[in-house]
Specification:
The protein is 46% helix and 17% strand. By secondary structure, the protein is of the alpha+beta class. Bound molecules: guanosine-5'-diphosphate and magnesium ion. Guanosine-5'-diphosphate is lined by residues 54, 57-58, 62, 65-66, 96, 115, 118-119, 124-125, 127, 130, 133.
Length: 163
């Protein structure tokens, strides 16, 4: 099924000049960029992205640290389209903790932070990217970050082979 998913390049990815290398991976896999913009969000917006669901799953301390982290610089919001894109992009991104994320994934290749280190410092794990975790999340997050006019339907020259 063709799906759309939201990817954020978080402040650490931007400040480490990894935009091109990370985007390249998604393009190489045949995913289509259907929306993209750079935003420096405030805490109010951050709370809409990192909702109470994070508190339920990870605790209040993690949500607080995440909101502090995501506003430290601009982020690049990208809407990607492709076959089962939500699950596929999560696979490319890797598991939450870079220390245990597999080599070949974005989090596994470009950083190495651990839960233990981040928790001790009371910071959110700096893992470069956010990717929607479910169909529901993707729907809500795309609507939060993009207006309808900012999302585009077009054909790529590769479409005969990848979509
Ligand atoms: P994701 O979907 O893999 O990004 O993971 P979650 O949605 O569960 O968590 C959102 C973000 O919170 C993660 O990407 C990390 O930056 C951060 N985070 C999650 N769990 C922990 C934790 O146990 N400790 C710390 N310090 N940060 C965490
Ligand atoms: Mg998540």
């Amino acid at each position: 099924m063709i799906q759309r998913t939201l990817v954020l390049l978080k402040p650490d990815a931007i400040q480490r000049s990894l935009i091109g290398r990370i985007l390249q991976r998604f393009e190489d896999a045949g995913l289509k960029v259907v929306g993209m913009k750079m935003n420096w969000i405030d805490k109010e917006f951050a709370k809409k992205h990192y909702t109470e669901d994070i508190t339920k799953r990870r605790g209040e301390q993690v949500r607080k640290a995440l909101i502090e982290y995501i506003v430290t610089g601009p982020v690049l919001a990208i809407c990607l389209e492709g076959i089962d894109a939500i699950e596929f992009v999560r696979k490319m991104v890797g598991t939450t903790e870079p220390k245990t994320a597999q080599p070949g994934t974005i989090r596994g290749d470009f950083t190495h932070q651990s839960y233990g280190y981040a928790d001790a410092k009371k910071i959110a794990i700096k893992n470069l990217v956010h990717a929607s975790g479910s169909e529901q999340e993707a729907k809500e997050e795309i609507a939060l970050w993009f207006s309808k006019e900012e999302l585009h339907s077009y054909k790529t020259v590769h479409e005969a082979h990848t979509l």
